[in-house]
Amino acid sequence: MIGKISGRVDYKALDHVLVDVRGVGYLVYCSDRTLAVLPGPGEAVALYTDMLVREDLLQLFGFTTLEEKEWYRLLLSVQGVGAKAALAILSALGPDGVGRAIALGDWNAVKAAKGVGPKTAQRVVNELKDKAPTVMAMGAQPAARPDPDALIEEATPAPAPVRNSRAKADPGPKIDAAARADALSALTNLGYQPSEAMQAVAQALDETPDANTSALIRAALRRLAPKD
């Protein structure tokens, strides 16, 4: 099983990238958001990968962060969500957006993904709400980095990239992943259940996405405080 590849971008297409690793080209399917942040032809790139294995098909799917990869794997565990739908959800919301939607029970946000109906969106929110805190806490981990030893010294000229109009997806509000992960950890250490901590942090981030760790914890605690 291939878990990560590191090489040079040969070309980018509408839904995939070809990565040259020491002369071997790996075709890797990615979300629109991932394709949008990948470097241009001839430049170094690294992707965490997940392989889809069927009797008549082998496909690699690529992700810039472990958080995105784990969301992909969790989405696949939901009935009715295949690889195409999982990438569509990640394309529409991004890893942070998926976490917020599940934490807030916002299945309408999930339904906004291309090809995802209301029943499937509701299943995503309901089935993943207890698993989401673990993945959201991974947001502080660094993105995949190219391995210099895996790159050929002289990159061969690459063809011009295919214009990808879909790749210009709105990245949404900028979230401090480390602050979110630290706030989740602090709240669970205080004795709150992961699911309720996740919901409180998501609500706080929804209002102030640029909040630091201390501000997030205070805002989340206000939401967790017993109501009179």
TrEMBL record:
Region of interest (Domain I), residue spans: 1-64
Location(s), subcellular: Cytoplasm
Region (Domain II): 65-142
InterPro entries for the chain: DNA_helicase_Holl-junc_RuvA_I, Hlx-hairpin-Hlx_DNA-bd_motif, NA-bd_OB-fold, RuvA, RuvA_2-like, RuvA_C, RuvA_C_sf
UniProt comment concerning the protein's domains: Has three domains with a flexible linker between the domains II and III and assumes an 'L' shape. Domain III is highly mobile and contacts RuvB.
NCBIfam families attached to this UniProt entry: ruvA
Name of the protein described by the UniProt record: Holliday junction branch migration complex subunit RuvA
Organism: Pseudooceanicola albus
